[in-house]
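Note to self: keep these together.
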Amino acid sequence: MTLSSRGNSLAGADRLTPSETKRRKRRNAPVPYAIRFHIHPDVRVSLAQDLRSAILKLPNGEGWRFRWGGGALSIEESIYLGAGVARRAEQLVITGEVADQPVECAWALEQME
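Structure:
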């Protein structure tokens, strides 16, 4: 992960390689994966109209854009356990499959101006 010097951009990449055990069990079939980004319950999340990014809106009105490369993005329910209280929350989930070759999924979270 790389955080910009101004703190307004965070970029990262996940490299996924299937384990030999899982591939053997599935007879070398692709192995599904899910990369999850759990979001605080006070943050509102929506897919952008182009379906190529997601918008995160903070309670103070500040906006952040989430972009990714590789896999499909969805918004799913999650749960937040903070201060001894369980609250409903959301998560961004990138899904796909990895077969014989490793898969790299790059992503970035950037403050909107």
